[in-house]
Design brief:
By secondary structure, the protein is an alpha+beta fold. Helix content is 51%, strand content 14%. A two-stranded antiparallel sheet has the order 1-2.
């Protein structure tokens, strides 16, 4: 999927993929420590996914 803000276009990944990347990066590359910001992001993404929505956005 391609997203766009103004003239800037970029690929967009699913929230589930973002969670997997943030969880697994330290396993895939042990030189990269788990960061608190990633844990906070995972919590925020899961919280947002759990909210009811009407499909609009």
């Amino acid at each position: 999927m391609i997203g766009q803000i103004g003239e800037v276009r970029a690929r967009v990944i699913s929230p589930q993929a973002q969670i997997e990347i943030k969880q697994m990066t330290p396993t895939w590359n042990p030189k990269l420590a788990r960061r608190q910001t990633d844990l906070d992001d995972i919590t925020a993404i899961r919280s947002r996914l759990a909210e009811p929505h009407d499909g609009a956005r």
